């Protein structure tokens, strides 16, 4: 009997869960999560999914207990894990981006990282903070925070290290950013053992290809239109494109079909101009994936 080959894939639970499942679905994997199950189902019999906290994924992947995972760069660095970073998720989805910053009260004398020498810092990412400070020759007492980190300054800590996207909440609480420790986006990661296995390696690369295609299509649409040859130059001058628009002949030699990919947020600006320039039968299609 031939042994069934399976890739064990960790999906993050918590804040990243739904956005990750949605991304996999857009990439072509029919993935669902039951309310009472820690094992998402996917329509690929070669993939075994399980929900694992993103903070824990790096060490489990490093140990080879999980073949591949999906977690943030900040958490990989916090775990000091040796894993293969296969794909960085460049996405407009806000949940897929964060930055870890050093924060102090507005009236704090701390202005630069060097001013943290000998100070007390509270954070949920102790290793990441220590590594950042040590690389800059700064010695400080870095303590683990079990939550509500923002309220610890100035009474319980001189500074904190916490996550933010825009900094709005920080400013609203009378705090300011001293420096950014890391900008973090999720990564598709793999264990060294899985990467060294030819079948698992290819399976992980296939997943990365499909996820990358879904990410490339994010915020883009396909436009198709008919254009008289006499108006073609005017229409092409309006169209942005990944490379160049595709122009195909039609049964009527005086007309051509023009197709291109554009940013969705530009459509309302360029479609009226295209019509004025002579384009007809303009159709907009949603895109799920762009595979280069």
Question: Could you explain the architecture of this structure?
Answer:
This protein has 9 helices and 16 strands. It is an alpha+beta fold and 292 residues long. The chain has 3 domains: 7-93 and 186-217, 3-Layer(aba) Sandwich (D-Maltodextrin-Binding Protein, domain 2), CATH 3.40.190.10; 98-184, Periplasmic binding protein-like II (D-Maltodextrin-Binding Protein, domain 2); 220-286, Alpha-Beta Plaits. The chain has a 5-stranded mixed sheet with strand order 9-8-10-7-11. A 4-stranded antiparallel sheet has the order 14-15-13-16, with helices on one face. Helix 3 packs across helix 4. The protein starts with 6 loop residues before the first strand and ends in a 6-residue tail after the last strand. The model has no long low-confidence stretch (mean pLDDT 94).
Largest sheet, spatial ordering of strands: 9-8-10-7-11
Secondary structural class: alpha+beta
Give the overall average pLDDT. 94
- SSE topology string: EHEEEHEHEEEHEEHEEHHEHEEHE
> Which percent range describes the beta-strand content?
25-35%
Helix coverage percent of residues? 25-40%
> What's the domain count?
3
Low-confidence residue ranges:
none
**What fold name stands as the CATH topology of the largest domain?**
D-Maltodextrin-Binding Protein, domain 2
The first-level CATH class of the largest domain is given as Alpha Beta
- Give Rg in angstroms: 25 Å
CATH architecture of the largest domain: 3-Layer(aba) Sandwich
Report on the biggest sheet.
Answer: 5 strands, mixed
Number of helices: 9
Structure summary, number of beta strands: 16
In CATH, what is the homologous superfamily of the largest domain?
Answer: Periplasmic binding protein-like II
Q: Report the principal-axis shape.
A: globular
